[in-house]
Every structure is written in C-alpha cells, then in structure tokens.
Design a protein that fits this description.
The complex is a heterodimer of chains A (about 425) and B (about 575). Chain A has 14 helices and twelve strands. In chain A, the strands form two sheets. A six-stranded parallel sheet of chain A has the order 3-2-4-5-1-6, sandwiched between helices. Chain A is an alpha/beta fold and about 425 residues long. The longest helix of chain A is centred in the N-terminal third of the chain and has 14 residues. Chain B is an alpha+beta fold and about 575 residues long. Chain B contains 24 helices and 17 strands. In chain B, a hairpin with a 2-residue loop joins strand 12 and strand 13. The radius of gyration of chain B is 29 Å and the shape is elongated. The chains are: A alpha/beta (about 425), B alpha+beta (about 575). The interface between A and B is large, with 52 and 61 residues.
Chain lengths: ~425, ~575
C-alpha cells in the first residue's frame, strides 16, 4: 500500500460555526425564509457568500429546490467543493448539493435559455422577456435563487428573475463592481423596495469584515491609496479590533537569489496546513520575466518538489492560453491574483511581489489592486517574497514597517537599517 | 462554588415517592388490558396521570432556536448573563431572567422561532430552584447530559424531520433521536409576556465563580472530545485502530470513581492532562509555563512566549542537544522537522506538547481541523497523539470544535468499510456513557464532586437497555482486540505481522521483486518456481539463480498461504531494503 501522501489530500472547505455566525449577526439570515426579495450588502470578506452558501446547503438538505449563481469560475469550483459532505449531519440525513445547483451565471443562462451572455454586453430586456416566454418559464417555478456578486449583473436580472422564484436573494458590493453594465446595490434596493408585486423585501447590511485578521488587513490596505475611503474606513479596523480578529503579522521575506527563495518557500509550503494558495500576477509560464511571476512556472516548480497542486488561470488575453477548470481542488492551489477573487485560503504565498506591468498601459494602480485582492485571500498566514536583486517596482517600499515581520519572524521595525534588507 | 444540600421539602418527598408509585400504577394497569373497551378512556387518563407523576423531574426550557443550537455547541445550558454573544434582539423569555433558567413543568406553547428543551433535574436542583406556579427558576447552568427531548415547532413528524435537516452548523451536534413535535405552536409567544418569578438570583459579579466554572467545563469537555478519536487516524500507517485511546478511560477514571476500565489496556494518563483536569498549574516551571500558554485568552501563542517556555524545557532537559535543535527548527517555521526530532526516544512529553501548541494555536483559524490532515504523517506514537489532542482540545475548548471529523485520514482499506467516515467529535448523547462523562465533567467543574448515584439514576430511563453491539466485521489481516467499557463497545484492531509485511510489500517503490534485493534473496527459495520469470545458468563456474516476481503475485502467494515464510525474517528483510520511518 502506498505511503499516504499529504500532498494528494484534497482541499477541505469549512463553513463558520454557530458562534461566528451569531457574532456577525448572520445567523438569522441563514434561517429567515419570510421574504420574496433580499439584498445582502457588505465589503469584501464580510460574509455575503457565506450566507448564500449556508442557505444553499440548508434548503437543499430540507429538500427544497435552490440554485446559486456567481461569476467566477474558480468560485464555482470552491463552492461546489465546499458544499460536499460539509454539514454536521450524518450521511443518512445529509443530502449532497447537486453539482448543477451551483454554476456561473453565464453557464446557467446558456443552458436554460440557449442564449449567450456577456456581462460587458448583456442582452436587452425585451430579448430576455421573449426568451423566458419562449422557453415556457413559469412564475415561482423554483423555491430560491441565490445570486453572488450581484453588482456585476445587468439591471434586467433584478427586473425579470424575481418573478420566477419564490425567493430571490442577492449579495452585492458597490466597491467590487468591475463591469460597467453591472447594477449598483442602490439600484437593486430601489427596484426590490418599490416593486409592489413582492410582498416582503429584506435588506441585510453586513458591515464588518468576517474573513480577515486585523493584522492582514492593516498590511493589505496599504496597496490601496488612502483616498479610497471604503478600504480605509476606520470602522473596518475598529470592527476587527472589537471582535478580536487578531492573528500573526504577514511575513515579508526578502531574497537576492532564487535558490535561497525557493529553499525558504519549500519549507513554508511543506509546513503549511489546510488550503494553501500560491498566487501569481500572470498565468502562462512563457510570459514570465522573473521567477515567481507566473502560475505555469510555479506549478512546475511545485511539481519538481513533489507537491501536487491544482493549477488554474483564465484565458490570457495576450497568448490565448487558458487552463481547464478543475473539478476537485487539491489543497495546494496555484492561481492568479485575479482568479483568486472571492476565494479564501488558510495560507497565501506570493512568490514574487515586485511585478510591474508595462508602464505605458498601466500606472501601477491595477496591479496594486490585484495585490490587495491576493493578500486579502489569506485567512491565517500570509507570506510575501520580495526580490531585492531586481526590484523593478517595490510596492511595499513605503509600507509601515510595524505592519509585517521579516523572515525570522522578528518585527522589521525592531531591526536596524541593514537587517531590514537582510535576505534569506 | 458550593452546592446547597437538599432541603427536605414536599417536592423532594414527592420525587422519592413518585417513581415506584408510578411503576406500580403502570403494572396494575397492564394487568387490566383486557377490560371492556368502554373503560379504556378512563384507563388512558389514569395512565397519563401515572406517567405525569413519574416525570416530576422533567421540565421544559423554551428558548429561541439560535440559543438551542448554541447550547448544543457548548454542551451546556446556561443563563443569558453568561452568554457574551447573546444579541438583545433574540428576546426569548430566558432573556428576562439573566441569571436563571426558567423551566416549565409542562410544555408551554411556542412560536416558530422557538423550541423546547426537555430536561431532567436532580432533587437538589429542584429544591434549590424558585417554584412559581408551573415554573421553576434555577440559577446554575445545566449540562447537556440532561437533555431528553428537543420539541420543535412542526405540524407533523415529516415537518420535524425537515426542521432537523436544517440544523447544519458544523459545530452543532444534532442528537436526531431527541427531536419531537412540540405540543402547541402559536403565532405570538406566550412566554414573552410571562411575569418572571421573584426573587431572582443576582450574584455578586466580583465573587461569582460561575464564569470560571463554565470556562473550566469548556476546557475539559474539549479535552475529552478532541482526544477520543486520536487512535482512529493511523490504521493505514501504524497498523492500529481504536474507537477510543485507552488513555481516555484511564484519564476519565481520575474524576469518575467506579468506572469499570479493567478491560481497557493500561496506559497511564499524562501528568500534564491531569493538571488540566485539576485546573491547577503544575509545580514544575516548564509545565507551569505551558499551562499558562494553554490558559491564555490570547488568540494564538506568539513566538516570544513560546520561546520562554522552550527555554525552561531546555533547562529541565539539561540542555539536551536534540531538544535544542528541535526548538530551533520549530521557531524557524519548520515544525515537521522539529517533530521528527522530538519523537526520538526518550520522548520529552512537554517538548512535544509545546511544539504542537505553538504550531496549531490559532483559535480563529482552521488549525483544529488542519492538524488532523498531517497527524498520520507526523506522528508515530498513538499515546503521544492522544495527549497532544487532549491538550489542544482543552486549549480550543469544546465550543470551538466541530461536531464531527471532516474525515479520517490514512484509513486501512480493509477496515474502511466497517468504520464511520465522519465519526463524532462532540457528544451526540447516543449512549449512557457519553451522558455520564458529561455529567462527571459538570459535577467536577461546578461542584468539585463526583456524580452521585441519584444523579446517575437520571439516565436510567434515557438509556434503559445498554446498546452494546460487539462488531464482527471481515477484518483481513487485523486482529480484533475490542473491549467493553460501561455501555459502549470499543473497537480495537491491530494489524497482524503478515498484514504489516503485505502492506509494506505493496508500498515498495518497485513493481516487482528480484534476487538483487535482500527481500528477493530471502524469498528466493520459497518463490523461485512461482516467479513470473526465472532462470538458472552458470556464470563464472557457479550456478546463477535469477528471478522476478511481481508484487501482486507475491502478495497473493503470501496471503493465500501458498508460500509460507518466517514472518519475523520477512520483516527483517523488508527493514534491510526499506527501513521503517520512525
């Protein structure tokens, strides 16, 4: 019998427990069925997806017809993995959520309406009405539809779809809207509230960050200019502090040669527990200029160390390369900053932070936002590798030293100027 | 905390007199089953009255659904004042009596957002409570061992099942046999308008020992719950499986006198775990340091504090080089290398515990789940694993744990079919043993007492027939060493020597065995003519025997006893080729 290989263990996903839900005032939303339309608002990491997933699992377990739609392929895979075998109930009581009950909005729309859908160029309202009527859809045909990342879907979604479901719940955040044809939460709220056909509209504002620790957030927000009032809102830190959401400070590991970086990273990966995200700015290996920049090359490096990992990046605009969407996720996942949106990992490793896109097309704002996304995926541990030999662009050069520790775990601020740049 | 001794009261006398009386009534009724049908309604009334009298110690606690789940997650039913997370908006009747639990003798009507916990109380608890009409106000928390029923708002048995299926929180154990249909469901809560009895118990917060007792209870429950599956995770690696590590029972016997543990293999419980049970820091400086880390309210154990304890451990160990190197590795983020070093004999228990606590101390993370994933790879000594899990269970506390394991890792494939895939961590009240364990912990933490016979008798009616089911699965190369403790059957399987050898042969990197390995040389005489290929030739004037046999073929021959070899020598030959990783 082969030796059990830890690297082959699939990723295990866990929903938060009753005390965490109660503390964040999310518990009631998991069990409240007395609404027709509902809107959950809140910043990234506030638990909007958690509420939707909980409702999905509960309603499915109770034999109700329920469906969850989102936009990111990887998030669909994450949620599909999350809802398998993941409740207190024993096998004889539990009902696994059918795979098809969770999909991207695009897939669902195409499969059920036989029409293509693009968030950037969505079909007009009258075409949607026609499509529904032609396909013979009837009002209230299913119990509940859950929409995640609702801010990126067009307005007709909220004008048409609630008619076809007994309950319709949307999670949305204005700050995370990336598609111009999307719908702001204010508009969704007005539509739901003013529509007299719907007997009860429920709004649940989730004000606090649920996923991150205070230390990770203090570090990560420095990627975003202080002019961004939502990210820099003092209530976020106050909330984390009041709820004692503390953890270890992020570790920034400077290096001058790849071999020493790799030796350190291998040790970190070997000792990392739970789901480990290795996040890179770009996908295809052939676009990489420096080691650590691409998903393709990092995945190959991990394989050479005997670490079996899942690899994913969406279609690259430049090369047209893409990875097939994985079915099951291994506990090591190598993916891009962008594809990691909406996901969370016990440990996040960023093998090379000093990445800079073509200055003519990007002033650095986009990549800093992506780095913010990458760092805020870390639930417990964040390791960032910083190349001192060829810094190009060093996004954390102006970070407050107290917000992270060096490779030996000591506070950087406590070290002298020489040791600040001392590499592994 | 002192427990008020029972006051001789009418209630107490009634309790004493009621049970035999009720039984007599039922016996006499059963003898009149053949009476005319017209008399049956009267008979039913008498039967109900008898039943009602017998259940004098049964009460109902109306609560909001969320708090019902919270109590199960905590394993404790406690007044609102001790619930730091209770939202003011919950507004169930219990919120009106912050320092008490308001119980009804009969089921009060409930709303859709409420449920009822059916509970058994001791005579002392009833006597100490404040009686007010149909209600009783008790001022101390009650253990979940007293739970007899969860009556939920439902109109049919199907609705009860549906309701129960909605309880999906990973940290809430769902004792499904206890779910019943509530007697009456009303649109508006009748209990919310209830005038609470006076005087209410309001302790002096400065001297109130209850919060400390609740915390100690949470730690001890966590210790036992997290420890109990310690020997389930290694069967595919170490060739040993047990439902409970025997250390579990020996530790429990320290706080529960009369627990029959003669069948459980003797493993002395860890002195450090005994200190946790006692709730008293050990005298030794290193152990006291570790104990302090364990009791910290911090979210995780940071490096400076862990280093300070490591220094004390090193001093105690006379600056042992192995331990020193292991700690250097540990604080350099290489826990796995540290653990490998620390498991070299003689094992320093305190060093191992410190390493595990430092690595997995983040209370707000998935540490309590993730540590199980590598348990079978990192640890080779089951009693040490039991101690590590016991300590970590006390550190996290019962509340923080999952109700069930995510899965079992490294399960031997011959055993897999007969084992639960997701065994319980938290107590699901499935047998009397679990209830007595919870009661023992409760009495120990809140009253510093053992469970007396009268309290234990509360469980007689809950588990009247011991549900002991000796298992007899097809075990292949496993020896069945199972045994009984109280009303539970503890499955213990140990892989036979042949089984271990076959497992190791299957794990060999090459797909076949030939004369070039020590194993091949040892098996040559027995397997030569069974081989897939063989050749006898003369080379340099000597006979040369060459052969090759596939692993699968060899396994078949050995398992079907077509080839018989000395198993100790076979194991030695395997050791020569692939040493066992210690």
């Amino acid at each position: 019998m082969p030796e059990p290989n830890n690297d082959e263990i699939l990723a295990e996903f866990h929903l938060p427990g009753v005390e965490a839900l109660r503390r964040e005032e999310m518990w009631a939303m998991v069990y409240d069925d007395n609404f027709h339309t509902a809107l959950i608002t809140g910043c990234a990491g506030s638990g909007k997806t958690t509420v939707s997933v909980y409702r999905l699992v509960r309603l499915n377990n109770q034999g109700e017809k329920v469906r969850l739609l989102t936009l990111q392929n990887m998030l669909v895979v994450f949620i599909r993995n999350l809802v398998v075998n993941n409740s207190e109930q024993t096998v004889d009581i539990q009902r696994d959520v059918p795979r098809d009950c969770i999909s991207t909005f695009h897939d669902w729309f195409y499969k059920t309406r036989k029409m293509g859908f693009s968030v950037d160029n969505p079909p007009p309202l009258d075409a949607i009405h026609r499509a529904f009527q032609e396909k013979g859809f009837k009002p209230r045909m299913a119990v509940e539809l859950l929409i995640d990342e609702g801010q990126d879907l067009p307005q007709w979604v909220y004008e048409v779809l609630p008619d076809y479901y007994s309950r319709f719940l949307v999670g949305a955040d204005k700050a995370q809207q990336v598609h111009v044809e999307g719908t702001e939460p204010d508009t969704i709220r007005a539509l739901f509230r003013n529509d007299t056909r719907y007997h009860r509209f429920l709004e649940i504002p989730l004000g606090q960050i649920f996923r991150l620790t205070y230390e990770t957030y203090v570090f990560a927000r420095q990627f975003i200019p202080q002019t961004n009032k939502e990210v820099w809102h003092p209530n976020i830190l106050n909330g984390l502090r009041n709820k004692k959401k503390h953890g270890r400070k992020p570790m920034v590991i400077p290096y001058r040669d790849i071999a020493s970086r790799n030796a350190h990273m291998r040790k970190i990966l070997d000792n990392a527990t739970g789901i480990v995200g290795i996040l890179c700015p770009i996908g295809p290996a052939r676009l990489e200029h420096h080691s650590g920049e691409s998903v393709g090359a990092m995945h190959a490096l991990l394989a050479s160390w005997g670490i079996s990992a899942t690899k994913y990046y969406s279609k690259d605009q430049q090369t047209g390369e893409e990875c097939p969407i994985p079915e099951r996720l291994k506990r090591y996942i190598v993916t891009t900053f962008k594809s990691a949106k909406g996901l969370e990992f016990d440990t996040v490793v960023i093998p090379r932070l000093n990445f800079f896109r073509d200055p003519e097309s990007d002033d650095g704002t986009t990549i800093r936002e992506e780095m913010y996304v990458a760092c805020t995926r870390a639930k417990t541990h964040l390791y960032v590798y910083r190349d001192l030999s060829n810094p190009q662009y060093d996004p954390i050069a102006d970070f407050v030293l107290e917000t992270y520790v060096g490779h030996d775990g000591a506070s950087v601020s406590e070290q002298n100027a020489t040791s600040v740049t001392q590499s592994v | 905390m002192s427990k008020t001794k029972p006051v001789v009261s009418a209630t107490a006398d009634l309790f004493t007199a009621t049970e035999p009386y009720a039984r007599q009534q039922e016996q006499s009724l059963s003898q009149t089953e053949n009476m005319p049908i017209r008399d049956r309604p009267a008979l039913a009334k008498v039967r109900a009255a008898a039943k009602s009298k017998r259940k004098q110690s049964s009460y109902y606690l109306p609560i909001a659904q969320v708090r019902g789940q919270v109590f199960l997650a905590h394993g404790l039913i406690y007044p609102t004042a001790y619930d730091s997370n209770a939202a003011p908006s919950i507004g169930d009747v219990q919120a009106k009596v912050p320092y008490g639990l308001l119980l009804w003798k009969d089921q009060p009507p409930i709303t859709r957002s409420e449920l009822l916990f059916g509970l058994r109380l001791t005579r002392d608890e009833i006597a100490d409570g404040v009686q007010h009409g149909d209600t009783l106000l008790v001022s101390t928390p009650l253990p979940i061992s007293r739970l007899t029923e969860i009556a939920v708002p439902a109109n049919s048995p199907e609705e009860v099942t549906k309701y129960m299926r909605g309880w999906i929180m990973p940290d809430v154990p769902v004792p499904s046999p206890l779910f019943t249909q509530a007697a009456a469901v009303v649109p508006t809560s009748v209990t919310s308008d209830f005038q609470v009895p006076t005087p209410q118990h309001t302790p002096n917060t400065a001297t109130d020992e209850t919060p400390k007792a609740i915390m100690h209870y949470d730690r001890m429950m966590g210790l036992f719950a997290f420890m109990r599956n310690a020997a389930r995770h290694h069967s595919g690696r170490l060739g040993v499986y047990a439902d409970y590590p025997s250390q579990f029972f020996h530790l429990m016997s320290r706080i529960r006198s009369g627990l029959a543990i003669a069948n459980a293999p003797s493993v002395p419980p860890s002195p450090f775990l005994q200190s946790i049970l006692a709730g008293v820091p050990p005298a030794d400086a290193a152990q006291a340091g570790l104990y302090e880390l364990l009791c910290t309210a911090e979210v995780y154990v940071d490096k400076p504090h862990a280093r300070a304890v490591a220094d004390a451990v090193e001093t105690d160990a006379n600056r042992d080089a192995n331990i020193h190197q292991a700690f250097e590795l540990l604080f350099d983020e290489d826990y796995r290398a540290a653990i490998r070093l620390l498991q070299k004999e003689p094992i320093s228990e305190i060093s191992v515990l410190l390493a595990a606590l430092y690595k997995f101390s983040d209370r707000q993370s998935n540490d309590h789940r993730n540590l199980k994933q590598t348990l079978h790879e990192d640890w080779t000594n089951v009693p040490v694993v039991a101690t590590v899990l016991g300590m970590l269970g006390a550190y996290y506390g019962y509340t923080a744990l999952d109700a069930r394991e995510s899965r079992l890792y490294a399960v031997d494939r011959h055993l897999a079919a007969s084992l639960e895939h997701r065994p319980a961590i938290k107590f699901h009240l499935e047998n009397r043993f679990e209830r007595e364990l919870i009661e023992t912990i409760y009495q120990h933490c809140f009253y510093h007492e053992d469970v007396d016979a009268k309290t234990a008798a509360l469980f007689d009616s809950m588990h009247p027939k011991p549900d002991i089911r000796p298992s007899s699965p097809r075990l292949g190369y496993w020896k069945d060493d199972s045994y009984q403790v109280a009303d539970i059957w503890v499955r213990v399987y140990r892989m036979t020597t042949l089984g271990r050898c076959l497992q190791r042969i299957e794990g060999l990197p090459a797909s076949s065995i030939d004369e070039t390995s020590v194993l091949g040389q040892f098996l040559m005489s027995a397997c030569f003519f069974h081989a897939d290929e063989f050749e006898i030739s003369r080379r340099n004037g000597k006979n040369a025997f060459l052969y090759r046999i596939s692993k699968q073929r060899l396994i078949e021959l050995l398992s079907e006893e077509k080839v018989r070899v000395n198993l100790k020598m076979l194991a030695t030959a395997l050791d020569e080729d692939v040493p066992v990783r210690k």
